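Q: What would this chain look like folded?
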Amino acid sequence: MTSDKRMSKQEIFAREIEPYIPDVFNRAMQYTRNEADASDLTQVTMLNAFNGLATFKEGTNARAWVLKICYNAFVNNYRKGKRLPNQVDLEERTITPDDDDWITMDGDLFDNLMSDEVEQALSRLNPEERLLLSMVILDEYKYKEIAEEMGMELNTVRTRLFRAKNKLKALLKEYGKEQGYRDKR
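A: My prediction, written as structure tokens:
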């Protein structure tokens, strides 16, 4: 964990992991597409990171380590969620232009720029496919960076992205024709 044995677990966590809480929350938002669930996933991730701090090697990429924990927590919750009935937020409120959160950093601004057809097609992809496409297109990650962060082989990343792109392309084929796009293959 660290060469300085006098440093407490809390101090190591504060120095190495806490600076990445905003990154974890942003990634959780990409996974869950819901602020409350993203907050829960961030808390679970931080708890798991703290409990697993003994496995963290100082000098390695702390951001990639904690984002991998976030990914694993999401996958575990996603699998569990597939067996649970849909949840409904009974305290949902209506947001008006006068509210402070009218436009938030969780994608509201971009959601309004995307057509319903594209949004619907993206929602039909599985969470991992959406994440990979998001990392490449929105976050501008290189494939090698994705492989390191997600703990995958580089060729696995390439293959999964190829499949995700083709799946999205197939889902948007008719919409593309309506918009005047042609398939070049």
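Residues 62-82 form the longest helix (21 residues).
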